[in-house]
């Protein structure tokens, strides 16, 4: 193995990760100086993130040789191993680009006097970034779990920044509980993967020979563990609670970055360490992903809190990514490498795209929250006049999330649909019968996502202000605008130049499934299957849209100039129109509540016809919470009470327990 300092890429990467930790510690030097923390350390952290992105991109270029290093850290016989290859390079690129935009926004967002001190917040923030980078670089189970738990703990403290509020304390506890349940599953997964060799390096796990049964157990544990972190149904319950509790930049990092680290882990284990598997792995992943996507879209449509709406939207998009991974596993199992590469490319691109536009929208809600002190959609409206910068940039993220061309969300969803259209040639009757249903679910989910985004943007930014206090709202500062603009630019560039994005994921698909998605007839076109079957050019579509708008503008100016008159809008025969008469978030969600009623647990309070003080209340809850988690919590509480008789408070009894445990273990060993 080459000496440590001879590996230039890895040396730079580890130095940049260490720089994040140093910046976090530097925040403690002047812990209460918001100027030092926000205007010095956070911009420096953004520069470090850009450096991470550059090194990650270099791992995707031609001629790059995989680098791996044994670090002088860890235990004496269990040192840390790190590795940089195409898969880790892609996710480092994602982490760096999106992390830079969030850090710049955070420099203008964080205020003094909000819960945790600025210096401690800086330490937690940059530790979170560094731990995600180390999860991506880890090449052994020991370092992976250390970095994974560091990521969970640092994000927990960020979620509970305003830790004096009881609701935030409960949300943080739920998040930490689910994080550790997932971590336990991953620990068991690595215990299976070493195959009896007791070597914890990923190289040893790649070479281990597992029986089909144990390989299936390892894959199931990985799907459960990473699914708990990514928010797969029914392991999603922490997500809509933690996002509203966390500061908006933290919500952006968790949704845009941390969930993608879970996707990275699932790809690393399923394709790299386990080398794929039987077709039922892909079918299971596909069904779980599609169910999660539809569930998230339906619940997002009925939310009245803007951050909970975006949290459920993240569940939907993670479901689409996992469904694409399931389709890639199916293609790989049936030796259909082009299908596997197309589905995997769709998963990777949608992970990148979701990181961009969901971070953009979470940050935009942070600006709205600072300007109005409101999260409830029922108390917002008309902010496009007061916050034109935020409204314009949020519109880009909204259209991207809705999957409209020529923005980036359309590219990955279009590729996923093309992958589904390539499945009729799968040589399995049952799969051929089920997979087309998946294509219909993807189309329905995309339509619901567009519906949700109309509600999100329309209720917040359009119409009239629903509360008098909104007249005092102000636009975001220049650092916040810069961070929002950086992410919006990424949404536009990937949508307009999709071939560049496909070229970036090609090394990953080549390594994991053995082939790449073919390019288009020119750098401005993509034709993933065949040019005669389907092709797309974001650039030509954008130019065509701009041309149509310009022609229509000129025609209207020439033909109708001077003949246009302004008049009040039709008031439906009622002269006293007020902002309260605008369509509300509840009104937008009512059709979805009726159509998808079995998804929800609904409690209504309806007034009687002769009620002197009529009151209408509706509460929509998650059936998973009431049907699974509350009974499980009661069962755990009952079991704890039953076992409490063993806790006698006497040292002799506790020593007896230890002695009996030792005897049982010796029986098993000998």
Can you offer a commentary on this structure?
The protein is mainly alpha-helical. It is built from 23 helices and 4 strands. A two-stranded antiparallel sheet has the order 1-2. A hairpin with a 2-residue loop joins strand 1 (67-75) and strand 2 (78-84). Helix 6 (166-193) packs antiparallel against helix 8. The radius of gyration is 26 Å and the shape is globular. The two termini are 39 Å apart.
Describe this protein with a few key phrases.
670 residues, disordered N terminus
For the termini, the CA-CA separation is: 39 Å
Large-scale geometry: globular
**Beta-strand level of the residues, as a percent range?**
under 5%
Side-by-side strand order of the widest sheet:
1-2
Low-confidence stretches: 1-6
Helix content: 55-70%
Q: Which value, in Å, is the CA radius of gyration?
A: 26 Å
- Number of helix segments? 23
- Give the total of beta strands: 4
Helix and strand pattern: HHEEHHHHHHHHHHHHHHHHHHHEEHH
Biggest beta-sheet profile: 2 strands, antiparallel
Q: Return the average pLDDT rounded to an integer.
A: 87
Q: Structural class of the helices, strands and pairings?
A: mainly alpha
Summarize this, please?
This protein has 670 residues and is mainly alpha-helical. Helix content is 68%, strand content 4%. It has 23 helices and four strands.
Give the arrangement of secondary structure elements.
Blueprint: H1 8-27, H2 34-58, E1 67-75, E2 78-84, H3 86-109, H4 118-137, H5 141-159, H6 166-193, H7 202-207, H8 212-230, H9 239-245, H10 248-273, H11 279-301, H12 306-333, H13 337-372, H14 383-386, H15 388-401, H16 408-421, H17 429-461, H18 478-496, H19 498-513, H20 538-560, H21 585-595, E3 600-605, E4 617-622, H22 623-643, H23 651-669
Antiparallel strand pairs: 1-2, 3-4
